Amino acid sequence: MNNNPFRQNNDEIRELVMQFLKMKSGKRFTFIEEEGFEIIADYFIQKDQFAEALEAAEFGINQFPYSPSLLVIKADILLSLRRYEDCLFYLNKAYILDSNDANLFIIKTDALLALDKQEEAAQLLESVLNSFEGEDKINLLFELADVYDDYENFEKVFNCLTLILQQDPNNEEALYKICFWTDYTGRNEEAITLYLWILDNNPYNELAWFNLGAAYQGIKLYEKSIDAYQYAIAINEKFDYAYRNIGDAYIRLKKYKEAIEVLEKVLELSAPEAVIYEAIGHSFDKLHNYAQARFNYKKASHLNQEDSQMHYKIACTYMNESNWQNAIKSLHAALKFHLLQPEYNLALGRCHMQLEDYDEAITYIGNFVRIRPKNINGWIELLNCFYKGGLFEDGFEYAVTAFEHTDSKPIFVYYKSVFLFAMGQSKQALIYLEYALTANVKLIKNFIEINPTLLQNQQVVDLIARFKKSKSSKSK
To answer: What's 158's domain CATH number?
Structure first.
């Protein structure tokens, strides 16, 4: 007695295939039932032997010319062989014999899509959808969702998945897919209503709880999203994606200690990933624990060695500790991947300025302003560099250039004045200072910050006092 039914089934299939091969070779006459030809064709399809599968289907059709199932199988094989028009021909023959086979419409849809007839494919499925129920209808809805996806009607993809879940609330494939499409279409409120309905009847559906959390997260209700994810974890304590999303929600809520705790749980449950170490590093960064932030950024960098951002973030931790030399090393590592990345150049310039290496600082900050000529802060940093380096004439020329590139921002008129004072051209400097005060008196604090000793100049003090008095009288 054979106690292995699968072995027995395989033996039966092999026997059928042997009978077919003998029939094909003409060695002896044998009779194979209609279902037998279906099994033989499927055997060859599973082995990707489509020519042999086609032969089996054709032999079967010769013996059973009114078999819709064999016609559908032949059409499916022709689809795999990219003979789309032939595929449609045999499907139409099958349809005449039996219009109740959902698989027929799925294969026909695939053929129409291959012929770039997306609208016709959609119309076909829409026309037959209400003729089916249960699993057949669900399969057709999945197919219709793929058609809408193919010609980028994403709202209808979401609708199809909603219909599937209304019929089968525990359908895992639909739950996985709708989570993505909810985020993509932004239809979070509708999704929340759907998930709450599912959970009313299926409270232990971990995917529905997860999707509910993701939908709440999509509309920035982070506390509610965390609660939903916690339910998912209560059902499945190894649900690592729930922990990931809780970590993200805690970061959004600026609860960095809690974020670190759950993200470290992710590392326990799944293979290490750069994005998780980066998120942990970011959380430590926000807690001003720069050593731990750096440790995790380095872990992320080892896992994704071509990510220049990790080198930049490592550099920033050194900069926060005033460790300028190590910051410079990390920034040069970042620049190997993106030589003209503006932020990297600006950070390098700042490091060199702190080390009073003004020529290098000017080079890197200069790179930044060339890439982003309308960025006011970049020009300000460059001009400060010129001033601290004692390069007053060059600084004045760059202040003129900054004024031209930033829609005549008054701050750069103040800089022109500062550089002229530094060059001993007090008369011209006072003219520019008066012009700057007229344009925006509030920026005088920036002027004073550049060189506080200018307040020892009586003409400067009188000029500032006159404008402040004028402003005070106007406000009354």
So the answer is: 1.25.40.10
Write the pLDDT tens digit of every residue in 268-290: 999 999 999 999 999 999 999 99
**How far apart, in whole angstroms, are the C-alpha atoms of residue 384 and residue 378?**
10
Is 59 contained in some domain? no
Q: How far is CA 464 from CA 421, 450, 469, 472, in A?
A: 15, 16, 9, 12
Alpha-carbon 413 to chain mean position: 43
**How many residues comprise the chain?**
476
Query: For residues 33, 39, 44 and 47, what is the CA-based torsion angle, rounded to 10 degrees?
Result: -160
- Distance of alpha carbon 450 from its chain centroid, rounded? 43
Quickly tell me which residue has 């999303």 as its tokens.
245
Q: Which two tokens stand for residue 152?
A: 């980028």
| 469 part of a folded domain | yes
Confidence bin at 259 (pLDDT 50/70/90): very high
| Among 66, 105, 100, residue whose Cα is nearest residue 88 | 105
Identify whether 464 is part of a domain.
yes
* String of DSSP letters for 87-132: HHHHHHHHHHH-S--HHHHHHHHHHHHHTT-HHHHHHHHHHHGGG-
CA 13-14-19 angle, to 5 degrees, is: 100
Name the one residue in this structure whose structure tokens are 């103040």: 414
Domain closes at, from 270, 294, 323: 270
Domain boundary residue among 270, 287, 317?
A: 270
pTM of the model: 0.83
> Distance between CA 138 and CA 169 in Å, rounded?
11
Q: Is the pLDDT of residue 472 over 60?
A: no
- Of 3-17, 128-142, 286-300, the poorest mean pLDDT is in 3-17
149 neighbors 185 (Cβ within 8 angstroms): no
- Give the chain's domain count: 2
Pairwise CA distance, residues 225 & 241, whole Å: 13
For residue 35 the two structure tokens come to: 């279902």
Q: What domain range includes position 234? A: 153-270
Range of lowest pLDDT (58-72, 103-117, 272-286): 58-72
Question: What average pLDDT does the segment 454-471 reach?
Answer: 86
Structural domain includes residue 292: no
